[in-house]
Amino acid sequence: MRGDLHLLTAVEAVGHILDGRLTSEALVQACLDRIGGDEIHAWACLDPDQALDQARELDRIRKRGRATGPLHGIPVALKDIIDTKSMPTERGSPIFAGRRPEADAEIVDRLREAGAVILGKTKTTEMAFVHPTDTLNPHDPLRSPGGSSSGSAAAVAACHVPLAIGSQTGGSVIRPASYCGLYGFKPTRGVISRAGVLQTSASLDHLGTFARTLEDTALLTEAIGSYDPADPASFARPRPRTLMGARAEPPVDPDIAFFEFPFHDLLDADARDGIEAVIDALGPRVERLPVADTLTGLVEVHLTIHEYEFVHHLEETITRHWDLLSPTLQPVVERGQRISEAQYQDALGVRDSAKAFFAKHFDDFDAILAPSATGEPPLIDSGSTGDPVFCRIWSLTGLPSLTLPLLVGETGLPVGVQLIGGAEEDDRLFRTAAWMQRTLQDAA
């Protein structure tokens, strides 16, 4: 094949590789050429020789007629909080400079089993929390790509790789995907193992996926889901078949809810107008629902659990290396240290009640429609990677969340629209998303 190989979707590329029209080596080399000097600073570690060796071996496997996987020969980027024994895992902090894990994370094993090429590690905010890294938004180098999965989102948006893995504890997949004009997906908590990944909040941490198409997002998610007894959140049940969901037609038009949260006042005017335009285009399929104070209060409940668990999970590291923490992170740690055990236990109880509420809610609705972020990406000079307020409730409750690049802001930068589904109904969520895209295209 000839042409711009780095522009191929993963679904296209794996099809071409398996039918012999493309080699993994050629695809990986095209991605490396595209990365070049990495002007957007997306990569924390890149080993071209290692990546090309992986690709050549996968090409040999295919030529010999051996078994191939759903991601056979496709380069994938990993957020630099995911342990890799063949590359450093430095977690965006000088505390972990030069850290070489002794074993791969479970997700790395799943990717290799699926036939993926691990291209490299992408930059993360400091320990996957608030302090930005130096990654630039490919759509505008003066803007943030979001956080904490900054490099993963930027690398896919810049066509460095077709697929990347990130993580979300608050809004660290959905928000960067929105800012970078991508599809980003946080599956139901427990679908993807977190073993071997930096733990910042045992109750809230999720792994997630980035891609440039809905089908690619579904393909990657389905390939890496597995039961893992090493992860307490993992469940020993079949995983939703997300790729089938993305390709399916719903038996009837979906019913979608839109909660009138008071923090929608934080939306930029163009983002608010865009969401309203989507709701108008979907017409009677969207039902506006009032919000009780208890539901709005879940944002603070999430923050309590996140900050308390971050401090306690990383207590030894924080204590020993306080001077190496950024001035951005230090006050967050101090706030977390002031949260009492009673406040934390109360927050966990409220979370459990919220999960029960949404379990009943999805008896009547296929999805919830919500903003992905407050609007266009913030300027890097602001020192912020954006506000995760529109993601916190869905991270708290562990529900599958998907952002679609449907809107643009007043300066032409991307603005995502979020869909949230029922627990372990990730395939149904993809089916609803595909229906919504087709419906909006027909209405345009």
Layout of helices and strands:
Elements lengths: L9 H9 L5 H12 L7 E4 L1 H16 L11 E5 L26 H8 L3 E6 L27 H8 L5 E6 L5 H7 L2 E4 L19 E6 L2 H11 L17 H6 L8 E4 L9 H14 L3 E4 L3 H4 L1 H16 L1 H6 L8 H9 L3 H21 L5 E5 L20 H6 L3 E8 L5 E7 L5 H18 L1
Parallel strand pairs: 2-3, 2-4, 7-8, 7-9
Antiparallel strand pairs: 1-3, 4-6, 5-6, 5-10, 9-11, 10-11
Helix pairs in contact: 2-3, 11-13, 11-14
Give start-end ranges of low-pLDDT stretches: none
Q: Any idea how many domains?
A: 1
Q: Assign the CATH superfamily.
A: Amidase signature (AS) domain
Look at the structure and give the CATH class.
Alpha Beta
Number of helices: 16
The largest sheet is:
11 strands, mixed
Helix content: 25-40%
